[in-house]
Amino acid sequence: MSAARAREAGEMFGPRMTLFADVLSVGVVTAVSCLPLVTVPAALSTACAVLRGAGEGRPATAVRYFALLRRRLRPGDLAAGLVALAGVLLLMADAALAGAGLPGARVFAVAAAVIGAYALAVGARSCGRPESLTDWRQALRHAARDTTRDPGGSGLVLLALAAAVLCAWTMVPLAFVAPGPLALALTAVDVRHRVSAARAAPGAPDQSRTYDKHREIV
Fold first, then answer.
1. What Å distances lie between residue 207 and 40, 156, 189, 201, CA to CA?
2. N or C, where is the chain less crowded by C-beta within 10 Å?
3. How far out from the chain centre does Cα 169 lie?
4. Distance, CA of 77 to CA of 21 (rounded, Å)
């Protein structure tokens, strides 16, 4: 369907422009919610949930975002933030050690890069899964499986993370909107993998029940 046909009478912009505006607004509120650092996983997971709801006709507003975020800032969410922060600090320490010129630094650097990339992909994909709204362990377990079985999607996730970091690094104001496109990418990769898995294995258990279970929360 063309953009012109998708517009209603008197509507200036089509649904794609509306989605673009929603992504930017969600990016701003997500960036603000990430400032305490330990809230990064919960904030990014909430952004993915809000954008997934926008694809189902629910409004992607700041009020809805913060309402959902308030309901889910539990000890488990803060623990997930502490683990993520510790992991990032560990990767930075490994990079510093690899650059210090110690014996075996090249092998160590390669191993650290591979492990770090895998950990980043799993952590990011877990935020894109709806299970992260209620159970981080389940989300991480499924994300680890998806990262291995869907290398193409994991590559897209790493590219999205790199693009978000690069945008924030080159132009600081972009750091306040970068979480929006990142959350959209994580959600799209998760939905893409779910649809591909359903087509490849029609007789496999349908994951739609998992998504329906979390729609009431969103």
1. 26, 22, 15, 12
2. N
3. 19
4. 28
Q: How many CB atoms lie within 10 A of CB 21?
A: 13
DSSP code at position 173: G
CA distances from 119 to 91, 95, 130, 184, 208 (A): 10, 15, 19, 20, 26
What does pTM read for this prediction? 0.83
Contacts of 105 (CB under 8 A, 6+ apart): 97, 98, 99
Residue 31: closest CA among 192, 178, 216, 196: 178
pLDDT tens per residue, range 95-137: 888 877 777 788 888 898 999 999 999 999 999 999 999 999 9
For residues 161-190, give the mean pLDDT.
94
